[in-house]
Amino acid sequence: MDKLADLPDPEDPATALAAVVSMRRAADRLELAAVQVAIDDGWSWALIADSLGVTPQAAHKRLASRVGKGSTRKASR
Q1: For the whole model, what pTM was predicted?
Q2: Does residue 45 form part of some domain?
Q3: Phi and psi dihedrals of 62, rounded to 5?
Q4: 42 domain residue, yes or no
Q5: How many CB atoms lie within 10 A of CB 1?
Q6: What is the mean pLDDT of each run of 10 residues along the chain (77 residues)?
């Protein structure tokens, strides 16, 4: 879905709301995977938070328990 025109018509709420749920789940999976890679690459919570548009405290509170502590991957940023 590249364009707004590709989204379901809100006049069909069952289809539109099902699409919202699906997109939220996909976004959550992408966010969690990207945060894990960022942590593995040595990113700080401040940098992750800035990239997500939230405070470091909010990012850490919401995501820290869902990702590993990091790995031996070399920091890229």
Answers
A1: 0.78
A2: yes
A3: -80, -30
A4: yes
A5: 9
A6: 78 96 97 97 97 97 90 53
